[in-house]
Amino acid sequence: MSSISATLRKKSNKSGEFPIAIRITRNRRTTYLYTGQYIEKLYWDERRSRVKKSHPNALRLNHLILSKLHEANEKLLENESIKRKLSVGKLKEAIRRENNSDFKSMAAIYLNNIKSRKKINQYKTEKNRVEQFLNFAGNGIEFHEIDVPLLKSFASYLQFKKHRAKRTVVNFMICIRAIYNLALSANKADRNDYPFGKGKYQIKIPEAKKIGLTVEELRKLENATGLNEANRHTLNVWLLSFYFAGVRITDIIQLKWTDLKDGRLYYRMKKNDKLVSLQIPIKAQEILESYKKVRSEESELVFPELRGVDLTDDILVRIRIKTITRNFNRQLGRIAKQLEIDKKLTMHIARHSFGNISGDKIPIQMLQKLYRHSSVTTTMMYQSNFMTQETDKALNSVLNF
After folding, report:
1. Does residue 283 share a domain with residue 352?
2. Over the stretch 370-396, which tens digit does the pLDDT of each residue have?
């Protein structure tokens, strides 16, 4: 025996309004499909299972209810015609999948949008975050069920049981919020249920201290001797990145000879598709000259790591660069140990090192151009990690008594 009807659920939101739902009963088991709409109890006609005419949006709401009842009924009839009938829970999931109204369905759209932009690393990372949240909260969770207590519980689970860093926990929450926002824009969730923001769950990004190399440590790298061929090559790539104000490895490893013209470097950043032009410093020119002597006639790439790889295949290139970065960082660790540099030497620290050396010396607007930041605010936040001269003076002026 199966039945479908509209009902007003008993749990209200913070505005004192109650959710309109479709009740599905089969074999004495009941489940509810939420429409995403809320009304005050006084506007609900219990006998007729519809919104009273006195409600300002009664016509539209009742039309929505009829539409949802029709969808549920169609799926129920379809289910009755097959041999292996779905349980009431599976029936609910089947209807929700068609409507894309639950978190899992909207997450699939969110991930597909990332994948279509060929952001493969981001896609894999976000997919993992979605899967972990669904494992914690349940595959069938709906947006109105994602509230502040659930988010706090999930954050605690990640930090204390899964031993994730605070910044990692924040990234999970940003992912959940992005999917919720997508649902709001598609009218698949109710804004009254939104659990993020002031007075609710606030996402606070913890400050991360960026540490770069000092001038003395950079000199150790520049004057390093006794390195094997692999170490020397890795160090050359690192130094070239540093000399070009911290060019990311994704860009430096795809550097072509055709990008170098008239004493300047011209390239398009892979991160944000920006065109960049930088003068080639003398120190960078010396490194490039050493590679020009062994230039390959079969490839325009300055460095050999991606030669033979189809550079139009974004997925393959990203996978390869990930492996290259890991290998480079391993070599840099050995170099740091050999030169007695007591810092974690990685490819990305080249960017931090440039920031540390520039410190308070260069105007912030010029640094914005060198870093290729879209906003000067981003540059100010980034450079604040290294601008310590004024604070050091202030501290000493107090203590020198």
Report:
1. yes
2. 555 556 555 555 445 444 455 455 445
